[in-house]
């Protein structure tokens, strides 16, 4: 599966989601793929992954990415939602009932770089496909 780079309008993931406005977008993926991607990101470059939200009820992981990412997000099997800070607070309490932080704010970068996340999700999908084909 080949992933496509998009023209990300954000300058830097570290400048996103900072301050009091908490303007981030949220990339949501199935839990299995998300956990693989988190593992890939954490094995790679230091501090490559921002806060990650686990929604057990929906079986998804959500990666905080810089605001504006949703406009060009095109990774199959995932969605990217603009939040404009609505209901999204970067504090220890998860913003959605029934969810919990896998990587809470303060223990991770402010946001995950969308290009790095795109590559990790692609690699995770390939690993999962390979594992499933070995059964």
Task: Give an overview of the whole structure.
- With 135 residues, the protein is α+β, with helices and mostly antiparallel strands.
- Helices cover 24% and strands 20% of the residues.
- It contains two helices and five strands.
- The chain has a five-stranded antiparallel beta sheet.
- Helix 1 packs across helix 2.
- The longest helix has 20 residues.
- It is globular, with a radius of gyration of 14 Å.
- The two termini are 20 Å apart.
Which structural class matches the secondary elements?
alpha+beta
User: What percentage of amino acids are in beta strands?
Assistant: 15-25%
Helix content: 10-25%
Mean pLDDT: 79
Unreliable segments of 5+ consecutive residues: 1-15
* Major sheet strand order: 4-1-3-2-5
What sequence of helices (H) and strands (E) makes up the elements? Answer: EHEEEEH
Q: How far is it from the N-terminal to the C-terminal residue, by CA? A: 20 Å
Any chance you could write out the topology, listing elements then pairs?
Elements: E1 24-30, H1 31-43, E2 52-55, E3 60-66, E4 79-82, E5 99-103, H2 114-133
Antiparallel strand pairs: 1-3, 1-4, 2-3, 2-5
Helix pairs in contact: 1-2
How is this structure best summarized?
This protein is 24% helix and 20% strand. With 135 residues, it is of the alpha+beta class.
């Amino acid at each position: 599966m080949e992933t496509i780079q998009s023209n990300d309008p954000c300058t830097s993931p570290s400048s996103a989601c900072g301050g009091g406005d908490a303007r981030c977008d949220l990339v949501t993926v199935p839990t299995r793929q998300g956990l693989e991607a988190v593992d890939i990101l954490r094995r790679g470059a230091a501090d490559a992954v921002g806060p990650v939200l686990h929604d057990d009820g929906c079986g998804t992981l959500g990666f905080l990415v810089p605001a504006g990412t949703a406009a060009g997000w095109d990774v199959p099997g995932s969605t990217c939602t603009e939040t404009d800070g609505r209901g999204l607070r970067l504090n220890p309490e998860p913003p959605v009932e029934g969810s919990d932080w896998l990587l809470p704010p303060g223990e991770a970068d402010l946001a995950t770089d969308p290009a790095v996340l795109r590559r990790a999700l692609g690699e995770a999908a390939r690993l999962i496909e390979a594992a499933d084909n070995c059964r």
